[in-house]
């Protein structure tokens, strides 16, 4: 599969580097798309100029490489530039677009308009938030990408006598490369010490001295970095045969028989009755996991927002 990148800043650079070095896909081009490149010394363009919305193709930079690709990945561009994405996608001849959002400043203001325009052109688009929440897709190209980059998936060998971690194989890396980076440091860790293992995952995931670390936003009001840490911790716990947040959710619902969503969240989120090694840090991760468990038929949600184990 051929991939073209539209990017800006260190977030885009790190992900492009991770994917390029893997050599799992062919990178046909990468272009740093910045407001000054498009609008020059006229910052009002793109806000007040109707031409920008009616004919954005006129604003595509002339030096954009004329490279054909199957998948376009948009990384960290300014939200004012999002209107150019459909025109660039058509110009490149792509069949699918991945537009991850790892920061509020990356959020396209006209997401639905962009989506509708691309779908009318027969181009699939998804907005994973954060990027490492991507675990699959009904679109074959995005699904092919998600088999190797997205929500972390690890295979861990444990010494049966000492229970220490012997080796780690990354089955699906995070797009930023943090899962691979952390995997290299797990050898020798005691898989029985869940609290220490959990703390290590969260600490290393946003360790800015690491070769690859999470660059997602970590504002408490929009905790994408913390959600990424939840996903990574659970990937490590799953590979070690430990209870994951999903397992914890299922055990509580089974124990209660019927439980309100918000009360369940209060028990699962850390800082409450659960320990960090059992629950998750963010409500975002809780909602993601719960939605998947309902979709997959493990849990049923009634009209009063209560949860129950799905009867066979």
Description:
Helix content is 37%, strand content 15%. The chain folds into three domains: 2-146, Rossmann fold; 151-242, no CATH class; 243-312, Arc Repressor Mutant, subunit A, CATH 1.10.10. Helix 4 packs parallel to helix 5 and helix 8 packs across helix 9 (224-239). The model has no long low-confidence stretch (mean pLDDT 90). The protein is of the alpha/beta class and 312 residues long.
Structure summarized in a few sentences:
It contains twelve helices and ten strands. It has 312 residues and is an alpha/beta fold.
Termini Cα gap: 41 Å
Query: How are the strands ordered across the major sheet?
Result: 2-1-3-4-5
The major pleated sheet works out as:
5 strands, parallel
Q: Categorize the overall geometry.
A: globular
Low-pLDDT regions: none
Kindly give the count of domains.
3
Strand content: 15-25%
What is the CATH fold-level name of the largest domain? Rossmann fold
The assigned structural class equals alpha/beta
What attributes characterize this protein structure?
single chain, 312 residues, alpha/beta, Rossmann fold, Arc Repressor Mutant, subunit A, 3 domains, 3-stranded antiparallel beta sheet, 12 helices, 37% helix, globular
Helices and strands in order, then pairings?
Blueprint: E1 2-7, H1 9-22, E2 26-32, H2 35-39, H3 50-54, E3 71-75, H4 85-92, E4 96-98, H5 111-120, E5 124-126, H6 140-146, E6 153-158, E7 165-172, H7 178-183, H8 194-205, H9 224-239, H10 245-256, E8 259-260, H11 261-268, H12 283-295, E9 299-301, E10 306-309
Parallel strand pairs: 1-2, 1-3, 3-4, 4-5
Antiparallel strand pairs: 6-7, 8-10, 9-10
Helix pairs in contact: 4-5, 8-9
């Amino acid at each position: 599969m051929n991939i073209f990148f539209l990017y800006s800043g260190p977030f885009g650079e790190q992900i492009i580097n991770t994917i390029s070095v893997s050599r799992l896909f062919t990178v046909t081009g990468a272009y740093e798309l910045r407001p000054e490149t498009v609008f020059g010394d006229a910052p009002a363009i793109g806000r007040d100029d109707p031409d920008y919305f009616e004919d954005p193709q006129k604003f595509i930079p002339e030096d954009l490489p004329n490279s054909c690709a199957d998948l376009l990945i948009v990384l960290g561009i300014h939200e004012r530039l999002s209107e150019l994405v459909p025109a660039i996608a058509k110009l490149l001849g792509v069949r699918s677009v991945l537009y991850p959002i790892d920061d509020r400043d990356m959020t396209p203001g006209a997401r639905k308009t962009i989506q509708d325009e691309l779908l009318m052109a027969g181009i699939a688009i998804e907005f994973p938030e954060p990027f490492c929440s991507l675990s699959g897709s009904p679109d074959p190209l995005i699904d092919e990408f998600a088999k190797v980059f997205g929500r972390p998936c690890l295979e861990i060998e444990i010494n049966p006598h000492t229970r220490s971690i012997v080796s780690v194989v990354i089955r699906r890396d995070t797009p930023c490369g943090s899962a691979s980076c952390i995997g290299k440091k797990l050898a020798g860790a005691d898989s029985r010490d869940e609290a220490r293992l959990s703390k290590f995952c969260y600490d290393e995931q946003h360790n800015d001295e690491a070769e690859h670390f999470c660059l997602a936003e970590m504002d408490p009001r929009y905790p994408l970095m913390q959600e990424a840490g939840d996903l990574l911790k659970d990937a490590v716990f799953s590979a070690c045969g430990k209870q994951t947040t999903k397992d914890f959710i299922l055990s509580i619902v089974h124990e209660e028989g019927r439980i309100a969503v918000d009360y369940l969240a209060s028990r699962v989120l850390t800082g409450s009755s659960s320990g960090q090694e059992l629950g998750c840090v963010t409500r975002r991760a809780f909602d993601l996991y719960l939605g998947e468990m309902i979709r997959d038929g493990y849990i049923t949600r009634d009209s009063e927002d209560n949860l129950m184990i799905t009867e066979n």
